[in-house]
Design a protein that fits this description.
The complex is a heterodimer of chains A (77) and B (858). With 77 residues, chain A is an alpha+beta fold. Chain A has a single domain, classed as Ferrous iron transport protein A (FeoA) (SH3 type barrels, Roll), CATH 2.30.30. Chain A has two helices and five strands; from the N terminus they run βαβββαβ. Chain A has helices at 26-34, 68-71, and strands spanning 16-22, 42-48, 55-59, 62-66, 74-76. A five-stranded antiparallel β-sheet of chain A has the order 4-3-2-1-5. With 858 residues, chain B is an alpha/beta fold. Among the domains of chain B are: 3-163, P-loop containing nucleotide triphosphate hydrolases (Rossmann fold, 3-Layer(aba) Sandwich), CATH 3.40.50; 175-261, Helix Hairpins (Orthogonal Bundle); 324-437, no CATH class; 640-836, no CATH class. Helices cover 61% and strands 9% of the residues of chain B. Chain B has 37 helices and 16 strands. In chain B, the strands form five sheets. Chain B has a seven-stranded mixed β-sheet with strand order 2-3-4-1-5-6-8, sandwiched between helices. The longest helix of chain B is centred in the last third of the chain and has 35 residues, at 626-660. Classes of the chains: A alpha+beta (77), B alpha/beta (858). At the A-B interface, helix 1, strand 2 and strand 4 of A face helix 3, helix 11, helix 12, helix 13 and helix 22 of B. Strand 4 of chain A pairs antiparallel with strand 14 of chain B.
Chain lengths: 77, 858
């Protein structure tokens, strides 16, 4: 699967996207799910860290930070 | 009846606050066997029969992180009598996700809704009765912070434990999923007890290795389950792990829509604070200010005062609390007068006078009036000799000259000393701090007086004062500073800023396989390595923490600065202008050593793998409570005292023995440390001789250089002191030109050898105190030795490269076999630095399994 579509990394700051699917495997993927980023969940990209990485998103009412590389595993609509 | 209650919940849900409230100070920390996750247990304040275990904060019971494994394993294998699941009511959805998993385990469980007061303050409403009915277990409001409702929650947990009442949740997944689960339950049959059935079925459906292995189902059943899984995955167009997670979250969302009434509101307070604190522009300046404050308070100001008090006051000569300025002035005057005496005598000697009678007299103390007659007579005779000298001096018109530096302007003027000022200086008495204000003598002073009074044997006195008390002092000396640092770190953690530190610094540190939180230890290390190593406790990820512990002491700490100054002086000699670069160079060397080490270590199997996932919560800001901050401080200080303290104490005594005992004039025994060159007769010198070959390729393969490096292990301050003793200069400072010359001679005079010596001593194993701290943080002898071994080997290699290759360039070293080895090691280092990341089999599941196996085996 090379053409996966839009990922969370590409969502501009201040915009909300809905999780479509999670890529990857193992601990990383499980961790993303456990933090509440599951299919159909709206995610607001709140900001990017002062040095340009990681990003901060709001999901299910909490603030979660994740690296851009990790955000690439989250496919969004 | 003894009863065990486990506290489980998300990180930052108020679990620790509840635990502290329930147990007070009756708690003890350890770690789970095989894993470096701390285990906290305590007895309930109101009933000693109740043991409360604080499980690590987790988001899920998936077996990936050590925290998750420990929590899951404890709940499943150790089967506590009841579980109190603490839920942050302000963050209900995410918190209930863990709850849904705990409920499946089939343990008596009560849900404590923490921070209900905040929910009400926000104007939200939670229908607790409805929630309780949906979840199928009691739900109780709680405010851990204000300790409201805590007793009721424990009482409820006891009641459930006594009745052995397990939750009966009404929460159901989508029909397809439930149908598949039922099929799996049929396959399992009666192989697991009914209460664990749902959990086991879900795990088998997910195909989790741990559960499959544990049950040892026949292959036939496994393939049936695989078919069920495949069918479900096709129908739902997703993998089972995702399906189950989605179902859990969906069920929670449904529950929350009926039970929670939310008022619409704008940004939360936390979001408002974060708009400034982690702002793209302001984030870094605010971070710098916070870090500066931490450093300034814990290292520069309060920390230094506290450490000075502990070292110089409690375990030194004594401490003056009031009127210190006056005392300092008086001491300054007294020192100036001593200088005058020296200047006058010098002038008299140059003039051809015999100054011996005067010196002899000055060395004597005036005997008391009731002293023995022989003493009185000797004193009178010396006084006569002194008077005779004075007569001659007056007749010759001796005028001494001395240079006086003005403290404010730094201007140097020449002052003359005539007979009158000389006599006045002679009669001056050393100021006694006790007369200036509130003063107490140091413990060693008191003990020494007492030991002398009871005529204690010299060796025992030396053991008590220089061995035991110095050892205890070395341990205790760090405590005041650690207390201050841990309070500050506790506040940073408690209020939620620590998570932001990681958020802000992650980008830089991740490159070297470190965590953003590694910044704090590295900063503190420029003051002292011991609190720095202890500060790594805030780094959750084990690999990151180990890597930070291994490298953080390479930053030159305060005690290493005199070494740099000494080397600087030895290199510079009188040529000051051309060698200004020495001090910055060694700081740079420290930083470079950390970066190089991290990049090289990261490619080793033990540290390999992707950087730890950085998917973490940025918790809401809270005002930390005094009680929590103090308890976390005490827990860490206690760990330092117990684990690090013993190592520091024992090694201090060993070094004392090696230094104080030796063979002098054919007899083994305690050496006279007043003797100028006593150290060359000590056992230490023998050890130095025996080990000197190790340092020969580094250019300082004599016992002097070796012994200096060994005493540096006790405390890096000792390096300069030892050079002073070895070169028979006594107590001279590192900025004294005489020690520069002697040191340069001791090192054989080549600048490359001096550079190599300095590099080795800065980078090698830190002082015993820091090693004790490392032992405490690593919690494993293997890793402690790995850290110390790596540092020493790395330092040796760097020093070898500096000496051999640097020497080749300057012409001080001839091309030899060690030069070849140095070149090979340099090439090896470059290879490890620049080669691509090697591929290791990083099957996360298998790794988790291995950890768990180790854990169960232990």
């Amino acid at each position: 699967m090379t053409d996966q579509g839009k990922t969370l990394r590409e969502v501009p700051i201040g915009e909300t996207a809905t999780v479509r699917r999670l890529m990857g495997e193992g601990a990383l993927r499980r961790r993303i799910m456990d933090m509440g980023l599951t299919k159909g969940t709206p995610v607001l990209v709140r900001k990017v860290a002062p040095l340009g990485d990681p990003i901060e998103v709001t999901v299910r009412g909490t603030e979660v930070s994740l690296r851009k590389a990790e955000a690439e595993h989250v496919l969004v609509d | 009846m003894a009863i065990r209650i486990a506290l489980a919940g998300n990180p930052n849900c108020g679990k620790t606050t509840l635990f502290n409230d329930l147990t007070g100070t009756n708690q003890y920390t350890g770690n789970w066997p095989g894993v470096t996750v701390s285990k906290k247990e305590g007895t309930y304040r109101r009933d000693k029969d109740v043991t409360i275990t604080d499980l690590p904060g987790v988001y899920s019971l998936s077996p990936y992180t050590p925290e998750e494994i420990v929590t899951r394993d404890y709940l499943m294998s150790d089967a506590p009598d009841a579980v109190i699941n603490i839920v942050d009511a302000t963050n209900l959805e995410r918190n209930l996700y863990l709850t849904t998993q705990i409920l499946d385990l089939g343990l008596p469980c009560v849900i404590a809704l923490n921070m209900m007061d905040l929910v009400e303050k926000n104007g939200d409403q939670i229908d607790i009765d409805q929630l309780s009915e949906d979840l199928g277990c009691p739900v109780m409001p709680l405010s851990a912070l204000k300790s409201r409702g805590t007793e009721e929650v424990v009482a409820k947990a006891r009641e459930l434990a006594d009745a052995d009442k397990v939750p009966a949740t009404k929460m159901r997944f989508a029909d397809d999923v439930e149908a598949s689960l039922n099929k799996v339950i049929d396959i399992i049959g009666d192989r697991v007890p009914a209460r664990e059935m749902r959990w086991t079925a879900i795990k088998l459906l997910e195909g989790e290795q741990l559960t499959t292995d544990k049950l040892q189902l026949p292959a036939e059943d496994l393939s049936k389950i695989a078919v069920i899984r495949a069918t479900l995955e096709t129908v739902m167009d997703d993998d089972t792990e995702s399906i189950i997670t989605n179902e859990r979250y969906d069920a929670i969302s449904n529950m929350c829509t009926t039970c929670v009434k939310r008022t619409t509101r704008g940004m939360t307070t936390t979001q408002k604070i974060d708009r400034i604190v982690t702002n793209r522009v302001l984030g870094i300046p605010i971070f710098i200010v916070v870090m500066f404050l931490v450093y300034f308070i814990s290292v520069s100001t309060v920390g230094t005062i506290a450490t000075d008090w502990a070292n110089d006051g409690l375990f030194g000569d004594g401490w003056l609390y009031t009127n210190t300025e006056e005392y300092d002035e008086a001491t300054g005057d007294f020192e100036a007068q001593q200088e005058m005496i020296g200047a006058y005598l010098e002038a008299a000697e140059e003039d051809g006078l015999d100054i011996e009678p005067a010196e002899a007299f000055l060395a004597l103390e005036e005997p008391a009036e009731d002293a023995e007659s022989a003493d009185l007579a000797a004193y009178a005779q010396a006084e006569e000799g002194f008077d005779a000298f004075m007569d001659d001096a007056r007749a010759a018109g001796i005028m001494g000259t001395m240079e006086v530096e003005d403290e404010d302007t730094g201007e140097v003027t020449e002052e003359t000393v005539n007979a009158a000022t000389f006599l006045k200086a002679v009669s001056a008495e050393e100021p006694d701090p006790a007369e200036f204000g509130l003063w107490h003598p140091g413990i060693p002073v008191v003990v020494e007086e007492w030991l002398t009074a009871i005529d204690c044997a010299p060796w025992l006195q030396s053991l008590i004062i220089d061995g035991i008390l110095a050892g205890v002092g070395a341990v205790i000396g760090f405590v005041p500073q650690l207390i201050i640092l841990f309070i500050l770190l506790g506040i940073l953690e408690g209020c939620g800023y620590m998570a932001r530190v990681a958020f802000i610094m992650d980008r830089i540190f991740r490159r070297f396989g470190l965590s953003g939180k590694s910044f704090i230890p590295m900063l503190i290390a420029s003051g002292c390595g011991v609190p720095a190593v202890m500060a790594t406790k805030t780094i959750e990820n084990e690999k990151d923490r180990r890597m930070t512990v291994m490298t953080t002491t390479m930053i030159p700490c305060g005690a290493k600065l005199p070494i740099i100054a000494l080397v600087f002086g030895a290199l510079a000699g009188s040529f000051y202008e051309g060698t200004w670069w020495v001090a910055p160079l060694f700081y740079f060397l420290g930083l470079a050593a950390i970066i190089i080490s991290c990049i090289m270590l990261k490619k080793l199997r033990a540290f390999a793998g992707d950087a730890a996932p950085f998917i973490m919560e940025l918790p809401a800001y809270h005002l930390p409570t005094v009680k929590n901050v103090l308890l976390s401080m005490w827990e860490r200080v206690k760990a330092y005292l117990v684990k690090a303290g013993t190592i520091i104490f024992l090694s201090s005594i060993v070094i004392w023995f090696l230094l104080q005992f030796g063979v002098y004039e054919g007899a083994f025994g305690l050496l006279d440390t007043e003797m100028d060159d006593y150290i060359q007769y000590s056992l230490m010198a023998g050890l130095g001789n025996g080990l000197a070959w190790i340092f020969a390729p580094l250019g300082f393969g004599n016992w002097e250089g070796t012994v200096t490096s060994i005493t540096g292990l006790v405390a890096k301050e000792n390096v300069v002191a030892t050079v002073g003793i070895i070169t028979s200069l006594g107590e001279v400072g590192e900025d004294d030109p005489t020690i520069w010359m002697s040191f340069a001679t001791m090192m054989g005079g080549t600048s490359v050898a001096i550079m190599a010596f300095c590099a080795f001593n800065l980078l090698c194993a830190p002082c015993f105190a820091a090693m004790g701290a490392i032992r405490n943080q690593m919690r494993s002898a293997k890793w402690t030795w790995a850290a110390i071994g790596y540092m020493t080997a790395f330092a040796w290699v760097v020093a070898l490269i500096i000496y051999q290759l640097g020497g080749l360039i300057t012409g001080d070293v001839m091309f030899n076999v060690w030069t070849v080895i140095a070149i090979l090691l340099l090439v090896g280092m470059l290879f490890q630095l620049f080669r691509p990341m090697p591929k290791y089999n990083k099957d996360e599941n298998r790794k988790a399994q291995a950890t768990l196996d180790a854990h169960t085996a232990a």
